[in-house]
Fold this sequence. Notes:
This protein is α+β, with helices and mostly antiparallel strands. It has helices spanning 12-21, 32-47, 65-71, 74-84, and strands at residues 23-28, 88-98, 105-108, 116-117, 121-127, 138-140, 151-153, 162-164, 175-177, 183-188, 193-195, 204-212, 217-218, 228-232, 242-243. It has a seven-stranded mixed β-sheet with strand order 1-10-5-12-2-14-15. It has a four-stranded antiparallel β-sheet with strand order 3-11-6-9, with no helix packed on it.
Amino acid sequence: MTATQTSAVLSAAEMDQFREQGFLGPFTLCSPTEMAEWRFGVEAVLDSNPPDHKTKIHNRHLDKKLIWDLATDPAIIGRMQCLYGEDLLMWRTNFFIKEPGAKEIPWHQDHNYWPLEPPIISSAWIAIDESTVENSCLQVIPGSHRKTLPHIKAGEDMVFAEMGDPDYLDVHQAVNLEMKPGEFILFNERTVHHSEPNRSQKRRIGLAVRVVVPMVKVLTWDSPEHALMQISGRDPMGLNTITQPPLD
Ligand SMILES: O=C(O)CCC(=O)C(=O)O
């Protein structure tokens, strides 16, 4: 599938909302019927072996055009350009596959884990499957991006090794981000987010797309082959190795 839509734009009110809340959406990338077509391709990618990087679920935009096309859909990139400017680089893509029984993803801020200097990054999280409270949708705490949350060691029942310190969290403020297949949200590196264990019998797949601006240097790399890709505009800083998107 190729992206054919015109780039989306945000209103001034939406941009203010992103600055105040740390997240925005859900927005529509495509209809649930169209996402069923994408999902067919996504499942084939997830069944295939990546040539040169660590797992089947991370950074498949490096070797599969379908993932690059999905991750750089104009519905996402147009909105990111409104918030971060024209010059955008793709750093990572991560599938979050929560099968029935999958563990909790702890409350966290992404910048705690990432080798970025400075840690300025925009994420889009795309619902590949329907994502509901029942099958552990993403949750965020509005306005939480205005503070840095201390992170501590997480328990065995969590997916990550570190989690946001519960003493500094007000989870009563949390918002459930239920999404139909084909919808997505935007958030930033400090927005506190989480998902419950998947207590349902329904799988939930999301694709997280990580986009940086050229002033951000990636300090360590997932693999020697993992370069960034220019999504739009220019790279006037030249701080990172840049490669071309896959052709097929
Ligand atoms: O999909 C989830 O449950 C968590 C996603 C997440 O932590 C992220 O996109 O940074």
